[in-house]
Amino acid sequence: MNNSKKVIVVTDGDEYARKTLDYLAKELGGTCLSYLSDNPTQASSEEIQKAIYRAKEEPVYVLLDDAGILGVGAGEKILLDLANDPDIEVIGAIAVAAHTKNTEWSRFTFAIDLNGELIPYGVDKQGVRLPELGRINGDTVYSLDQIDIPIVIAIGDIGKMQGKDDVKKGSPITRQALEIIMERGGLI
User: For 64-124, where are the E strands, in sequence order?
Assistant: First the structure.
């Protein structure tokens, strides 16, 4: 996998996530495919794979979103296709929390709460710690457990979390998650 493109998957594709990841790609380096993100994801696996191959700088940030669709939605199907592509290495994922009423969940390596603390408990959309140990509810997280990703970091809603992850403040929570994934993936 030495020549494979290093990818970080983000399970959110709304306007806040796009703005945040565009900003952080400029700050941390890498290529953000925000122009292919949507809520829900409309791009095909093939479109995203071709964009990853063309990316000039790594990591490549891929935003996937199912917009609350239960089961394997468009974003999760793309995630599975990326994981099975020998020319792509998913070095990590940011699992973004959804409303707790959602029945889909995933395991994660650890979570980062709205105060930037690394915790073993899940978080809600606001980044507030939940009593659930090692699980996060989300709408594009179901497939994360089906593939081998070295690190999955759970966080609240990107660019929000009671204003603490606002892009005007440098999106410190999302930034911290990306930096940890990049460090463990050998990119910094």
Answer: 88-96, 105-107, 110-112, 118-119, 121-123
